[in-house]
Input
Amino acid sequence: MVCDFEGDTANWDMMKVRCTLVPPEKMQARATRAQHNGTLYRQKLKHIGEKRKDEEEQFGEVKTRKYDALNYVAAPFELKTNICVEPQQFNIQTKDFFLPSLQQIGDSIKDIREFYCPRGKLSIVPKSLTASLKRITEKLVTFLQEETFSLSQNSGLIDTAKPRLLQETDGFIFIAKTLCFPLNIPYSELPSDIRCDIVLMLPSQPAFVLTVVDNDTTEAKKYVSVARGLITSLNRFIDDDFSAVFGVVCKSHLDSWDTFQSKLKTLAHSCSRFVTFDSLYMSEGKYDKLITSFWASVAKVEPGDQFPDAERINFLTKEQCTVLLENMNSKYVFVLTLPKCGGTTLMLEVARRLQNFLPTYLMVKSVEDKSKYRGLCESVSTALISESPAITDVLDNNCESERAAVTESILPLHDHETIKITWTFYNQKYNLC
Output
C-alpha cells in the first residue's frame, strides 16, 4: 500500500491522505526510481552477472556491466583508447571512379577484419547474440557443417552435391535484427514480423542475404530492398562485379535441411535471372576482397558534423566498431567513454543509423551542440546531466509511434512506452564520485 500526502506538510491538520493498493513489483520500481532520481550519474558501474529474457521469453546468460537499479546494459567494450593520431589516407581496390579519398586511424579496417574474421575458421558476427538469434545461428551452422551443398555456382546454379563447409575453411555469418543499422541503409518502417537479417559468405559459393520472417508477407517482400542496399554498399569498395542471392526465408524453412535447401534453390534461380553470372561467381580471391569490402561498409562514416570534408570518407576505429556491432541487437545500451576516445563520433553515427529506420531523438549537453547537430535526426534537444530532466521535457509524449533515443545524459527513457531503443553515452569526466 502506498500513502500519498496532499497539502502543506507544515500543517498536519490540513493534510489529506490517499491510500492506494500497488503491486509489489511496482512498489520496487517506484522505490528504485526515487532512490536514484538526480543522483544516478554519480554511481559507478558494477561488474555483475545477470539473466535476461529475449523477445520470446527465453533466458540467456549475460555477463556484463549495468547499473543496479535500471535495466541499462553496458557496452561489452568501453571506449578508452585515446585517439591522438591523425587519420591516414589509404586505398582499397575499387571500380568506383567517383569514390572520394579514404582515411582511417591506424589500420582500422585491417584490425576490425582480423578481430572478427580470423582466417581458417567460420566467423559469426556479432560475438554476443540474444537467445533467439543464437538458435537461428546454430541451425544455420549445423546445416553448413553437416549437410551437402547443392547450388554449384560453377554449373550455373544447378543441382550438384558438394560439401558446404569443410574444417579449417573460411566462412562468414553476420546476423542482425536489421541490416539498416550496421550497414547504414535507409528504410522507412520495418515490417513487424521480421526476426533477423543474415549475410552468409563462403569462398566457394555465391553470397546470400536472407531475411528471416514469421510469415512471408507483402511487407516482408518489399523489405528485400535492404539487401539491394547492402550489395550497393559492398560494390563501392571492390573491383569485381558483385551480387548476392537474396530473399525472404520463413522460420519454418529452418526446421529441416531439405526445406531450407529447397528455399535457397528457389531464391538462387530467381536472382540469377536478373544478374550476370560473374557477379554471383565466388572464388577465394573475390571472397577475400568481399570481406574487406564488408567491413569498410560497416565502419564507413559519411562526411558530416564530425568530418565536414565532403571529399573524404572516414572510418570507425576497431574499438568504436566493436561497440557498435556488439550492441546493435540490444534495446538499452550504455557506453562508457573517456575523453578524446571517439565517443562523440560514435554517438552521432549511432543516431544517424537509427534514424534510417526509426524516428530518433538526440539529447546533447549544450545549446551549441544542439545547433551544430540539428538536422542529423528527427529531433535534437539539450538535457543537462545535473538537472536530470523529466522525459516530458525532451520528448513529445503525444507521439504514439515507436522511436529511438541517443543521449549524453542518464535518463530513464526505457520506462517510456514509445522508446524502442536507447543508447546512452556516459563520459567518465562527469563522474563526481
